[in-house]
């Protein structure tokens, strides 16, 4: 990126909480806007019951970790494990099925993670510093294009002084 393009572009100001945190749904406690159409005694489908009350939840109903032989937490304990849902849902309004989203791993190519080519942040700073001042120290020349294009990894011996 050349210096003229960088100076002409100014970042957008962060002016509200939605820009900083993403989409935030405000809390609304009005009973008139409650979308649930359920009454006490309504019959629910088996799928809804299985989602809301898995078999281990039914077995441990009303019990706490103090009553369990192995001491593990139950769904009736107020612990982070029970209060923070890890069902794969990406928002409170989405119904999640499966495990936590941060444990869903996939094999990705080097290009997709940014390791495919080009300069990293340090190399870009040496070639084109933001303030326009040279970044390298005295007695050290910035890397040439040939050095940057080399196949040798950066921690190889190509930047070390030769032994005498």
TrEMBL record:
Residues 142-152 have a biased composition (Acidic residues). Residues 1-164 are annotated as: Disordered. Residues 34-60, 87-105, 130-141 have a biased composition (Basic and acidic residues). This is Phosphotransferase system, HPr-related protein. It comes from Azomonas macrocytogenes. The lineage of its organism: Bacteria, Pseudomonadati, Pseudomonadota, Gammaproteobacteria, Pseudomonadales.
């Amino acid at each position: 990126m050349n210096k003229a393009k960088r100076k002409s572009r100014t970042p957008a100001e962060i002016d509200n909480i939605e820009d900083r945190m993403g989409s935030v749904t405000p809390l609304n406690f009005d009973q008139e806007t409650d979308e649930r159409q359920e009454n006490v005694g309504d019959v629910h489908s088996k799928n809804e019951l299985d989602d809301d009350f898995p078999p281990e939840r039914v077995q441990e109903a009303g019990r706490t970790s103090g009553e369990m032989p192995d001491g593990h937490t139950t769904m009736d304990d107020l612990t982070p494990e029970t209060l923070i849902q890890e069902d794969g849902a990406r928002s409170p309004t989405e119904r999640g099925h499966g495990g936590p989203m941060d444990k869903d791993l996939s094999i990705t190519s080097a290009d997709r993670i940014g390791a495919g080519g080009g300069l990293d942040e340090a190399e870009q700073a040496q070639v084109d510093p933001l303030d326009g001042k040279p970044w390298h120290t005295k007695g050290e020349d910035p890397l040439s294009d040939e050095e940057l294009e080399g196949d040798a990894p950066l921690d190889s011996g190509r930047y070390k002084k030769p032994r005498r």
